[in-house]
Amino acid sequence: MPYLLISTQIRLEAGPTMVGDEHSDPNLMDFLGARKRNMPGNNFCEYYVNDAPRVVLDKLEKLGYRVVSMTGVGQTLVWCLHRE
After folding, report:
1. Which sequence ranges form a coiled-coil region, renumbered to this chain (predicted)?
2. Which residue segments constitute the domains of the chain, with CATH numbers given?
3. Which residues have a Cβ under 8 Å from the Cβ of 47 and sit 6 or more positions away?
4. What does the pLDDT look like over 19-31, one tens digit per residue?
5. Structure pTM?
6. b/e for 39-55, b at 16 or more Cβ within 10 A?
7. How many C-beta neighbours within 10 Å does residue 64 have?
């Protein structure tokens, strides 16, 4: 899975950081120390870590991921990463 989206709420830029969905690579989620949760009202699960996005980005860089783009969507910050 060469593409990855991570995100956080603007008011929570110190964490938690969403790092995957229910179909994400379990080995990668393990490496990040992510936990799976289902938020009330959602019909899907997501993985999150308590780390700040900067810490997550540093960890992913060690695995060869590079930021392709970053944007703000409403009150959410989103990074798209890719690994060759």
Report:
1. none
2. 3-82 (3.30.1410.10)
3. 18, 19, 20, 21, 24, 29, 32, 34, 35, 36, 37
4. 988 899 999 999 9
5. 0.85
6. eeeeeeebbbbebbbee
7. 11
